[in-house]
Amino acid sequence: MIVVSGTNEVAAKDAERAIEAAIALAHETRKEPGCRFYSFYQDIESPGVFRVFEEWDDDAALKAHFQTPHMAAFRAVLGEIGVLGRDVKIYRVSGTEAL
After folding, report:
1. How far apart are CA 73 and CA 15, in angstroms?
2. Closest CA to 71 of 24, 33, 37
3. Is the pTM of this model over 0.85?
4. Is 82 exposed, middle or buried (0-12, 13-18, 19+ CB in 10 A)?
């Protein structure tokens, strides 16, 4: 399994537009083969900061996700409003267990 987690930051004035784009992206992404979990969370102390958390079956599923029209649309919105910061990482998970 692959986990993608990190943050994207936009200007607080652009947060609503980022939310709309993220919701559209998340709805379509969850339909993709190999997507186990996909969601965005807005930082309650910094309105322009959003955490993304994703779980994928494998590299092929994640690579296919990057080529989808809904990902292109999301990137276009971020390009229009501008990203102030980005820190997203990929984690390769060998197993999971309940905590």
Report:
1. 16
2. 24
3. yes
4. exposed
HEC readout, the chain: CEEEEEEEECCHHHHHHHHHHHHHHHHHHCCCCCEEEEEEEECCCCCCEEEEEEEECCHHHHHHHHCCHHHHHHHHHHHHHCCCEEEEEEEECCCCCCC
User: If 0-12 CB within 10 Å is exposed, 13-18 middle and 19+ buried, where does residue 56 land?
Assistant: buried
Cα gap 17→12, rounded to integer Å:
10
Cα–Cα distance between 47 and 43 in angstroms, integer? 6
Query: What phi and psi values does residue 53 have, to the nearest 5 degrees?
Result: -135, 125
Q: CA 62: distance to chain centroid?
A: 11
Tens-place pLDDT, residues 44-67: 999 999 999 999 999 999 999 999
